[in-house]
Amino acid sequence: MSVQNMNGTKVKPAKETLPEVEVESNGNGHKMYSYEMLEEIANFLLTKTNIRPIIGIICGSGMGSYWKDGSLADTITDAERIPYEEIPNFPTSTVEGHHGQLVFGRLGEVPVVAMQGRFHYYEGYPLWKCCLPIRVMKLLGVKTLMATNAAGGLNPSYKIGDLMIVTDHINLMGFAGNNPLQGPNDERFGPRFPPMNKAYNYEYRKIAKKVAKELKLDNIIREGIYTCLGGPNFETVAELRMLKMVGVDAVGMSTVHEVITARHCDMKVFGLSLITNECITNYEVEAEANHEEVLDVGKMRQDLLREYISRLVHEFSKV
Ligand SMILES: O=P(O)(O)O[C@@H]1C[C@H](O)[C@@H](CO)O1
Ligand code: HPA
């Protein structure tokens, strides 16, 4: 459901959030959920479904979360949908294009759980809370995270509608001292100082390129470096020029902290960006980035994404 704001733009109405039960301080003014609380959330979900997912999929903006018919999350069979509002102590989605539910079911034979809607820093959630579902997935038995996102194409050779296999990321928010792993470390999830040089699984990336070739997607498949800014504003020309200089290929507002959280708890990760708009690095250009275009490109590519990701799930499940 959406309402119009004063400018006539469609926005999601604010939802009432459940009262938070916060038990541990992360030493930075924020409170975090304990391992036991996350276990409670996972156990609650396990009572709601018989599906035991091994792959978790995060649907990016407009990529299965908004366009109800034919979207990736709607392709899942034996689907059991659990709205975020019904999950105790779970955040809620506030962004248009992020439906706000977990979908348990199967893609082919493979048991999966899809997040039809993710949480972003700009919604007001601290990074650890944006990433809470990843740890819940881990406790559900998920071994592999497939994080998809909509992103602006900064690499000049990229075109709108291209798919970028993420080879690596630059954690810009981390440079500014903001990290989802900040605070006391619970070794049951992972080590205090996790390595990040193998963030995006090499084998998966090879498979993704092979499958893209088989599906004749060679002309739209790219590989590159993603970075996340806090949002919600899109970037200035000067910011984009700077990001280009340091080797960024695609710019978004998510994924990096999710991947860090997933790697911390030893999940294997695959990242995929849909290039939904061109990053404008020239003051003479009239066009402006906007969320509607992001959602429209998601819709334009939904059939292709559904086919590609379903194939990848099948291949990844064999590794
Ligand atoms: O959830 P993702 O990262 O796919 O969403 C991108 C970033 C912003 O949330 C939004 C901007 O249009 O799309
Ligand atoms: O150009 C962008 N910048 C940041 N986030 C985005 N998400 C989609 N497009 C963009």
Please describe what this structure looks like.
- Keywords: Glycosyltransferase, Transferase.
- It is an enzyme of class 2 (transferase).
- Residues 55-313 form the Nucleoside phosphorylase domain.
- This is Purine nucleoside phosphorylase.
- A purine D-ribonucleoside binds at residues 235, 277.
- The radius of gyration is 18 Å and the shape is globular.
- With 319 residues, the chain is an alpha/beta fold.
- Helices cover 29% and strands 23% of the residues.
- The protein has helices spanning 35-48, 72-75, 127-130, 132-140, 172-175, 202-214, 237-245, 256-264, 291-300, 302-316; strands spanning 3-4, 10-11, 24-25, 31-32, 55-58, 77-83, 101-107, 110-116, 144-153, 163-170, 221-228, 250-252, 268-278.
- Helix 6 crosses helix 10 (302-316).
- The model is unreliable at 13-21 (pLDDT under 50).
- The longest helix is centred in the C-terminal third of the chain and has 15 residues, at 302-316.
- A hairpin with a 2-residue loop joins strand 7 (101-107) and strand 8.
- It contains ten helices and 13 strands.
- The strands form three sheets. It has a five-stranded mixed beta barrel with strand order 9-12-11-10-13. A two-stranded antiparallel ribbon has the order 1-2. A two-stranded antiparallel ribbon has the order 3-4.
- Residues 60-61, 95, 118, 120, 149-150, 231, 252-254, 291, 294 line the site of the ligand O=P(O)(O)O[C@@H]1C[C@H](O)[C@@H](CO)O1.
